Amino acid sequence: MSQTQILQKTPPKRILVVDDGPELAKALRMILSFGGGHRVDITKDAESALAQFEIGKYDLVITDLKLPQMNGFELASAIKQHSPDQHIILITGHADLIQWDAEQLSKIDLLMEKPFTFQQLQQALAKVFSVN
Questions:
Q1: How far apart, in whole angstroms, are the C-alpha atoms of residue 20 and residue 120?
Q2: How many domains does the chain have?
Q3: Which of 2, 20, 42, 73 is an S-S bond match for 25, by CB 3.0 to 4.6 Å?
Q4: Which domain, by its residues, includes 35?
Q5: What is the secondary structure of 99-111 as a DSSP string?
Q6: Are 39 and 16 in contact (CB under 8 A)?
Q7: Does residue 92 form part of some domain?
Q8: 19 by DSSP, 3-state: which?
Q9: What is the side-by-side order of every strand in the sheet holding 87-92?
Q10: What is the C-alpha separation between 44 and 67, in angstroms, rounded?
Q11: H or E, element range at 120
Q12: Is residue 76 within 8 Å of residue 64, measured between CB atoms?
């Protein structure tokens, strides 16, 4: 099965990517849109994401943990406060350095550690959207 076929197992979704690193955000947009047919918007910080976020507009928010001013957990908490059913994937390169608590983890649907592969991204989407 090709990488495109793997990504296309998840029906097209509307996704907001929040990352202050433009390379990863652009790579995610390219993979998700060209490889999976998803519609992807990018913001560089949590404040911009909150300004752009509307309940029901996005099927998924993918956010980096380390963001300027407000981190990914704070963003997830703010989003879940207004939209408890919103799917959120948190990505980080520092999972082993963080003391995770139940409250923080309850604000996200999935934690992905960077770097991740194309297949791991597809598996994450399938898990969040329960695609078999």
A1: 21
A2: 1
A3: 42
A4: 3-127
A5: ---HHHHHT-SEE
A6: no
A7: yes
A8: coil
A9: 39-43, 14-18, 60-64, 87-92, 110-113
A10: 8
A11: helix 118-129
A12: no
Instruction: Report pLDDT for 94.
Output: 77
The 10 Å CB-count burial string (b at 16+, else e) for 9-42 is ebeebebbbbbeeeebbeebbebbeebbebebbb
Q: What is the pTM of this model?
A: 0.88
pLDDT above 90: percentage of residues in the chain: 68
Residue owning tokens 């090709």: 2
Q: Please check whether residue 90 is in contact with residue 73, taking contact to mean a CB–CB distance below 8 angstroms.
A: yes
Tokens of 109: 């649907």
* For helices 118-129 and 22-36, angle between their N-to-C axes, nearest 10 degrees: 70
Does 132 map to a domain?
no
Does residue 100 belong to any structural domain of this protein?
Answer: yes
Share of the chain above pLDDT 70, in %: 86
Q: Does the residue 49 lie in any domain?
A: yes
